Amino acid sequence: MSFESNGEIACCGGKLLKLSHKSNEIGSHMDVNIYLPKQYYNGDGNPIPVIYFLSGLTCTPQNASEKAFWQIQADNYGFSIVFPDTSPRGDEIPDDKDQSYDFGLGAGFYVDATEKPFADHYRMFSYIHEELPHALDKFFNRDAKKLEFVHNTGITGHSMGGYGALTGFLKYYGKDRYVSCSAFAPIVNPSQVPWGQKAFTGYLGHDKELWKQHDPSYIIKNVDNTTGSEILIHQGSSDPFLEKQLRPDLLLEAVKGTSWENKIKVNVVDGFDHSYYFVSSFVPQHAAFHAKNLGLI
Ligand SMILES: N[C@@H](CCC(=O)N[C@@H](CSC=O)C(=O)NCC(=O)O)C(=O)O
């Protein structure tokens, strides 16, 4: 599996690589950005841990690369950060019938679709958690293990991407993949909110029992927190999507009486909205959290 370069940009002490590759899962080309920190170029040769940042509705890999300010934190602690796309792209890819922003292109919701016409291309769960990490591993680690794409990794994301991060972390829990998970204003209970209900109906159909297998607020009840993991969440109090779409209270309610009770730290931050002004304000705290879990500090 090979990646083509669409540009290499000097940034902080390292480089942001804009890549694209042919994905077998998605059946078309996918763009992905990766920031290689200064330690990649001048470090001691130890493999560099990777954090995956899953973006929200309407995003491409550029939004977070340009506006989240992860790069300076990556240099501070010595991790790399991968910014995948949020859906398949291209003329042949089916979109929402009304071309709305919350379904179809830019809104793959990090699930493997089972419904036509989306099932052929919208395989974002398998792409993000299997194909992409292994493809990056093969490409970057041909000669020596330079970057840890598959094991001892972190995952985070914003909004729809926060949903994707929570789901991936929980579904792979105990499987030597993600050792650290955080989220910015995540959709925590998609089965119960309009964005999630629209996506799940379109990608997965009408079976609400099946939806539960893709919903962190249900999945978490069947995952034993064997290592005392904590999940860090920030949520703006002035986020216009808080009451209708995000509802972090539903996740806290779901974990009551489970091994995750008191392990999910929801920080409601006064006056912040849903934008990258909010995300970038709390990236330093999330970076420190992941760095600790990844053994960097
Ligand atoms: N209608 C709005 C809503 C889209 C929006 O706010 N997208 C967020 C993520 S929302 C949840 O997944 C986003 O990250 N936007 C891109 C950005 O750079 O801010 C709209 O279309 O703006």
Output the number of helix runs.
Answer: 11
Order of helices and strands: EEEHEHHEHEEHEHHHEHHEH
What is the CATH class?
Alpha Beta
How many domain regions? 1
Organism: Lachancea mirantina
EC number: 3.1.2.12
Subcellular location: Cytoplasm
Family: Belongs to the esterase D family.
Architecture overview:
With 297 residues, the protein is an alpha/beta fold. It has one domain (3-293): Rossmann fold (3-Layer(aba) Sandwich). The chain contains 11 helices and 10 strands. Strands 1, 2, 3, 4, 5, 6, 7, 8, 9 and 10 form a 10-stranded mixed beta sheet that branches. Helix 3 runs parallel beside helix 11. It is globular and about 50 Å long. The structure holds ligand LAXINWYW. The ligand N[C@@H](CCC(=O)N[C@@H](CSC=O)C(=O)NCC(=O)O)C(=O)O is lined by residues 56-59, 63, 101, 158-160, 274-276.
Keywords:
single chain; 297 residues; alpha/beta; Rossmann fold; ten-stranded mixed beta sheet; 11 helices; 10 strands; binds the ligand N[C@@H](CCC(=O)N[C@@H](CSC=O)C(=O)NCC(=O)O)C(=O)O
List the helices and strands and how they pair.
Blueprint: E1 3-11, E2 14-23, E3 28-36, H1 38-42, E4 48-54, H2 61-67, H3 70-77, E5 80-84, H4 124-140, E6 147-148, E7 153-157, H5 160-171, E8 178-184, H6 194-204, H7 208-212, H8 216-219, E9 231-236, H9 242-246, H10 248-254, E10 264-269, H11 276-293
Parallel strand pairs: 4-5, 4-6, 4-7, 7-8, 8-9, 9-10
Antiparallel strand pairs: 1-2, 2-3, 3-5
The chain binds ligand LAXINWYW.
